[in-house]
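=== Structure Prediction Worksheet ===
Name of assembly: unnamed complex
Input type: mixed (protein and possibly other molecules)
Chain count: two
Listed entries:
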Amino acid sequence: MRKAMVLFTCLFVATAWASASGGHGEGNEPSVPDYILHHVADTNDFELEVPLSQPIHLGAIPPIRIGNCAPVMTDHGLVAPSGWSGLMGGCLDLSITKHTVMMWLAALLLLATIFIWSSRDKTKLVPRGTGANLIEMLVLFVRDEMAIKNIGKEDGPRYVPYLLTAFFFILFMNLLGLVPWMATATGNLAVTCGLALCTFFVTQAAGIRAAGLGGYLKHLTGGVHWSLWIIMVPVEILGLISKPFALTMRLFANMLAGHIVLFFLIGLIFILGHPAVAAVSVPFAFAIYLLELFVAFVQAYVFTLLSALFIGMAVATGHHHDDHGHADDHGHGHSELGPSHDHGKAHA
Amino acid sequence: MFLPNVLAASSLVSVQPGLIFWTLVTFVIVFFVLKAKAWGPILQLVEEREKQISAAIESAKRERAEAEKLLADQKTAISEARRQAAEETRRNQQEMEKFREELMAKSRKEAEELKLSARREIDEQKTKAIAEVRAMAVDLAMEVAGKLMSERMDDSKHRALAEQFVKGLPLSGSGNAGVRRSA
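=== Predicted Assembly ===
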């Protein structure tokens, strides 16, 4: 508690002083929104943000482009094609950006942490020490509370390594974003999209594995008459895509929003131009920072939990189709509108 | 000032295919490395531990049940032994009682028999003695009679008696006697 108070006071004094001295160099300074958006944006060049002065440029990694990447004429002059438009033109832009580096850094930290903490006497079944216990606790949590509860006792353990990797990878990227001078890779749509794509692929694989390719494709038709397939199949595919889309947006928005709020609270001092604002905004920013620490865990948890849920749904679909088939065989002689039919429709 | 911000913000939501690619690559590498080097061994260890714990619990339960069974067996055995001992004692006592009674009955019978035989003996002796006394009395009487007869045979009354006696004697044997007596 005393430590927290000391930290608090330091933050307060520093920001108050910063706002007071920041008043001198007006005009040349970027506006607060510019600064924030620049901070959270993904760029090619690396810079060290220095409080109260211009950032120090650390240089840029030369862009990596694969394919037909001749510069094209645009409104801004002759530029190399990038992004999706570039990809359409046959040029894949694989440039190493700030967020790519952050992602790799998080990956390395993750590997190092896991290896250091999981390297123990393997002959002893009981872990010793904080690290080993912490890892085992989280592993068991992911296995018991997410995989087995949502996917099932038989199929659950198969997807535990994927869920664990997703959880820890996202967690480390989230936490790395809270370290000064680092950036949040999960605050980038492309990164969260890539992660959601992983879940998407795993979910489809789980569905095909549980129901077979035929059952999987049959499920895509929603179990309706073939003449309705032209409506049903796009709807089903939309349903498939909406899940990873939700994952993408949730993680991205949460991570980005927290950082923007944090910066705006600090920036409020400069916008309002009085050191006294710090008395309010610094405690708020501090609280938001703590909240962000919590959110880092929560979002990793939510992403993993939803992944497990989607995989569980895909697996259950396979099992359900088996049951449905049996019910149909059984119910054909008796009635057209048996409970199995209703159930199938409700599921579709 | 507003427009550049919006433009910058739009760059925030632009999805770079390159970064998606790097994310996928990084994720897949991290996944396989961790699966091979960390998750696999950890999960294996955890499963092994769970198996051992459940086995230990199971065996503890089994052993406890066994111990309880043994204890119950022991208890029943002890009570059985106790019961048997009590029965044995009871039976012994009963037997002893019976034996004693038998002995008593036997000795009583013997005493009775002894008494009986003694009485018989006494009776016998008494009878014998009476017979003896009677014989002696006859002899004495005979002697006295003999003496009387030899001395006072002249009396007419006695003469008649003797004659009557002689008459009553068998002919062959008693003739001599009669002769002797009459002589």
